[in-house]
Amino acid sequence: MGRPWLLLSVTSAAALLGGQLAFVGSATAVPDLVADRPSAAPAYPADSLRALGARTGLKIGTAVNMDQLGSNEKYTQITAEQFSSVTAENVMKWAEVEAVRGTYTWEKADQMVAFAKKNKQLVRGHTLLWHNQLPAWLSSDGYTTTLSNDEVKAVLKKHVFAQLRHFKGDVWQWDVVNEAFDDNGQPRETIWYKAWGGTGYIADVFRWAHQADPKALLFYNDYNLEFTGPKSNAVYELVKSLKAQRVPIHGVGFQGHLSTQYGYPDLQSNLERFAALGQKVALTEVDVRTFTQADAVNTPVNPLASYAQESYWSRSLKACLAVRACISFTPWGFGDSYSWVPGWFDDPQEGAALIYDEQLNPKSQYYVLQQDLALAAGAPRR
Ligand code: XIL
Fold this sequence. Notes:
By secondary structure, this protein is α/β, with parallel strands linked by helices. Helices cover 35% and strands 17% of the residues. The chain has 2 domains: 164 residues, Glycosidases (TIM Barrel, Alpha-Beta Barrel); 169 residues, Glycosidases (TIM Barrel), CATH 3.20.20.80. Strand 8 and strand 9 form a beta hairpin. It is globular and about 55 Å long. The two termini are 27 Å apart. (3S,4R)-3-hydroxy-2-oxopiperidin-4-yl beta-D-xylopyranoside binds next to loops.
């Protein structure tokens, strides 16, 4: 895959040089393309997103579907070759790890962590506290529970310590708190909010997480932070106030679920203002959906839609590249067949949101990212 000039792999470079592998790694014989690479050739192509991202130190991630990893050969190979960071799309969520109260099931999450180690990838932990995908014994909707406020507090503390300790040392960034504000910038009145009588739970959870795994980077993660507005402003004020209270928060995750039906957000200025608070920032769940056909959910209604999608992908990656504090760029999966979008945004139908098609072939959106990374030599190293 790739543009012909990007296809120069270590082996083909050696072939060009008369088949003498000894020349590979010599700065004069093989310029630029392999200059950053260690002498032992890694198991991924020089034109992969991960290899190209490494030139600026930017990790390129993906959400991982554990029903495919290991069993679907093509899916597994792409995950290993293209990405330098992985996020569990579902298997680290509370409903998955503690479906039965007091009984932890870490198997699938452990398998993903083992895969990441084997393939020299970093792990984004997703997510410790959210109002969705909670176990039934705790809450069916995130807003109501049969437990008392004191019990809610106790189970949350237990959960944070159990999960952080289980993965201690294995997780690079944790999404500690996910989606605590609504689009009007009001705190969601979840079971956590109710138990604490306000947003005080956020500071407590970050403090517990830091105690349990002092080396992990701790993130607040949300959608629509890309756009300046009441929600982004509310999270900005939250981070400022957490910093003032010396709460250990290290980063803000911009989910980046974009749609061509809305204008492109002022993402870079939002990344910059959070970075100016001393935070790392990251694009954590990027997808760019468009209107699609009801009976072919990944076929755009407008045949020119992919141009708008390419533009959104490119601009969001370049916004991250331009901001030194932006340490990872993570699409929310990579194959349109496995995307959450068609099932979630279906009235009207949207889809075609990822960079590989339903057959796991790279789309034009993939090549745009590849080219942007290849041309990013002037971006600040991180
Ligand atoms: C989604 C998953 O992709 C789906 O498989 C699941 O059914 C629902 O959750 N914001 C988040 C992610 O933080 O955890 C969500 O993932 C997408 C929105």
